[in-house]
Design a protein that fits this description.
Length: about 625
Amino acid sequence: MDAHRTHRATTPAPLADVDIADPFWSPRIETVRTETIPFQYHQLETIGHLESLRHRRQDGDPVPHIFWDSDIAKWIEAASYSLVSHPDPELDARLDDVIALLASAQGDDGYLNTYFTVIAPEERFTDLRDAHELYCAGHLIEAAVAHHAATGKTTLLDVMRRYADLIGTVFGRGEGQIRGYDGHEEIELALVKLAAATGERRYLDLASYFVEERGTEPYFFDLEAERRGTPGYFGDQFSGEAHPGRSREYLQAHAPVRDQHEAVGHSVRAMYLYSAMADLAREQDDESLLAACRGLWEHLTTRRMYVTGGIGSSAVNEGFTRDFDLPDETAYAETCAAIGLMMWAQRMLRVDRHRRYGDVMELALYNGVLAGLSDDGTCFFYDNPLASRGGIERSAWFDVACCPPNLARLLTSLGSYAFATGDAELVVHVPVSGIVRVPVGDAVAVVAVDADVHGSGRVALRVVDAPDGELTLRVRVPAWSATTTLHLDGRPLDLDDGDLLGEDGYATVTRRWQDGEVLVLQLDTAPRRLRPDPRLVDHAGRVAIARGPMVHALEEADNGAMLHMLSLPADADLSARDADGTHVVTARGRRADVAGDGLYRSGPVTSEDAELVFVPYSSWANRGAGEMRVWTREA
């Protein structure tokens, strides 16, 4: 077993043990609490999600969407996480009301799905490829686990245990069971969470069944379509019956999971599957499953990931196409997919700790995820292009509204992504300022984190309440930092020492600490150029700008229109400054002249000096629907 897997086990830090007090993140999390969560509840109420649970539908009322239940579930999850850091009796009571509606909608046998109960009760579990039944169940299970952890209540947990037990009797390899799995992965990772929350092994075994059965022959979705005799919910929209081979890849069902070597198909589905695979590799100490995860990670991050951490280049399949096909203006890069990438990275860090996972998790967080939410917390991007000619704005809601509540649950649970804890061990995966409580036997150590990865690059860990024995502090040294130093109470430590900076890319100090001692990691946050792999056709001759974990972009609000006419000289100095609380990068560039006759000319194109202003990509489209470009021509 690899050396970095023999460390004491750590788990994502419980939210109750993390108090975030970060000048960058705290205002955004507060906006989610005060604006996003109430706004999303209003949407669920007015559009009809909650009314559908009451089963009082009349002719002419909205038809429940097949995955409305998952929107409700993710809202419950986000609201539950929010209660941990900000107790709110009104929100707590509202959660109770919504959960009571869910409980009242549950069938006598434990079944719970609004669409099939209200619209098509005779079609239960007949269209797993398209109808998202187990996907909805998975999100409701995640919500139940989160609500129980936040409040101690078992109201939703009891409901979802009944449903999970029903699913366990319906699906499997036994006589009379359906030997199948859902078209949209999610139930698998949710069952792992349910097993951990309840201590019931059967839920882990069911998760393992769903993962192991996927992609085996004969292909379940082909058999299901034959039995059903009618097109699925989506018909041939995704080349289902018409092109079964492509449909299998879209669903990650083209091969058994250990034989899948490329990230293919629908990007969110893939991320949820890979997350479950990583979970099971850890829970079952399965080296072959871990090897499959490593191979998929390598393929995705070196051939099919945008510079922003976005994934999925095509709107046609909401997913992957071919290696090095990463167009800018037509990039899909769904917000949920970037969140899914973070979920997978978090799980890989548990089973295979290495900074490569933390680097990507941080990249996706600051760019591919955060761009999905407006500054006021009430508008959202579903897809995230890396260039726009104008006219693109975030939307208040979508017919398929998976991304808004997904953003809310991610940001309200940020502490569990940023930090991991174990007995006498704190791991900082993503530096975020705040207080973290670390278990040390029967006692608790308290560590204050002061992180500024956007400006000074200083990441300080101060031991506020030291334990009697040893405490290990681990901090990821990001690959983006060209030069990094480490100091303990002002005394320099040698990061070339293999005991301090191991192959996993984490600076590690284990010692008996005194109250007030400080470990400081100094990162290099100078603006830097990012140049593309030559195989990236759409980016040839272009350069991107980044500072710390944040990718920057040109925006019309600062640089005027026709951004494609701007270029950045290869030798131009890059300067960082603060503009009204936003870290921007500036440089002296050039703007092409339009003077001249004819559409095509034999003479050279002339240009004039221009100041280029690059703002964080995540902040674009908050000042109007103007042009934007991440990649700039390099002169």
